[in-house]
Amino acid sequence: MGTRKVDTLLACGAKVIVVSPKPTQQLIKMASEGAITLTQRPYRSADLDGTFLVIGATDDESLNQQISNDAAQTNTLCNIADRPEACNFILPSIIQRGDLVITISTSG
Fold first, then answer.
1. According to the UniProt entry, where is the signal peptide (predicted)?
2. 3-class DSSP state for residue 96?
3. N or C: more exposed end of the chain, with fewer CB within 10 A?
């Protein structure tokens, strides 16, 4: 799931920084190509310093909650995958075919 979110952010022109102790091979490849910045270590609260938004896409529920709490403390836009109650914005599903773009939301 995290890699799809990275792809979406890159398509929108975002500067993407990924923090992960165990990145996927695809993320490692994206970093080696210069598409993203990859920091290979566990998340730290200070990782949000100077950020506009954060996406928590881990399989660790307590870590996702920490990311959400840290984002609230720093007034950072936050999306936690599959946890709408921990988000202050949502990312809809996006389908793009040429110039046609469709977004789909289930209200969270």
1. none
2. strand
3. C
Q: What is the DSSP letter of 86?
A: G
**Residues 6 or more apart in contact with residue 30 via CB below 8 angstroms:** 6, 36, 38
What integer is the mean pLDDT of 85-105?
86
The C-alpha atoms of residue 61 and residue 67 are separated, in whole angstroms, by 10
* pTM of the model as a whole: 0.84
Q: Is domain 2-104 in CATH 3.50.30.10, yes or no?
A: no
For residue 2, which of 107, 46, 16, 13 has the smallest C-alpha distance? 16
Would you list the domain boundaries of the chain? 2-104
pLDDT averaged over the chain?
A: 92
- Mapping DSSP onto H, E and C, the string for 46-74 reads HHHCCCCEEEECCCCHHHHHHHHHHHHHH
